[in-house]
Amino acid sequence: MLEIFAITTRGIEAVSAEEMARIPGVQITKQAYRRVHAAITGQVEPLLALSTVDDLFINLAEWQGIAPHRSALANMGQLALDLELWQAANLRAQIHTLPAIPAFSVSANFVGHRNYSADEIKSSIATNIETITGWRYQEDDRRSDINLRLFIEHESAVVGMRLANSPLYKRTYKQQHVPGSLKPSVAAALLFLAGVSSGDVVLDPFCGAGTILIEAATIGANAIGGDQDAEAVAAAKSNGTMAEVNINVQKWDGRAVPLKDASVDKVVTNLPWGRQVEVESSLTRFYQDACTEISRVLVDSGRAVLLTNLPELIALPNRRIERQIEISLFGQQPTIVSFGPTQKTDDENQT
Question: Which single residue of 7, 200, 205, 303 has CA 20 to 30 Å from 125?
């Protein structure tokens, strides 16, 4: 049985866990801050298609007693000598061919104050790994064949080897960016929460660089969107071409989209926050108009998933809030608000 863990955006750990659990042979074992741990008995290749996670690692070890003072550097260097690196590297080689003497990099993240730096952690570990493996240390992760990662929280550390060549959230299509442009894994999480499936008509009325639309089209949805910024529309079209998917993008005001009433199955969007993207009118009025338009175009059974740092301004007529999730993004803590259809009473169903 192989132990793995995924790195995800703070707040959507449960979403990523649910996506992972849908893969045959995957059993979720633990959720932690920005991490989802699992055991897998099946093939690992399907894991590489996960859309809501940022990165994916083979779990090499979980260390305890990693103190904040400098003696921890020697401790971590010693612990690195016992890592089961060859078995993980052989699995990695089954997915991506490795050279006879691979180059490896080390990344380190920690929470809280420590009397040593991430660079010192890397140096302490890399020296000993070079000694026991003969591999070549490469400081630049982008030029390495193998990436080893440490996540230190309090006095515990989780050590992993990246399964893919690069972080999963780095989609090759994302070449053009605009202010407020979403990370693809977050866009995918919004679509997951909306329950988007192949054949759905999905609208993003404030599409920016088109990330939500492209992620929706990738799973077979009919993706329609627009933006009032001509540069954003051009960026979305360019990214869509890079992704080799069909998205319908127009220049429009998201408060008055040229679509018929009840013509959309799902609305998924990153609403303008007034910080990342300037809004000409007052945000209160802007949100009122946007919410009215979203409600108008949704079918009765439709769902809307909206991302904003002003959830108190969101209200969709004839819709009920199903879920609210605070996440970390752009150095802020916006909220995902998921709306479903308002359930009719028995009297209403009989009329």
Answer: 7
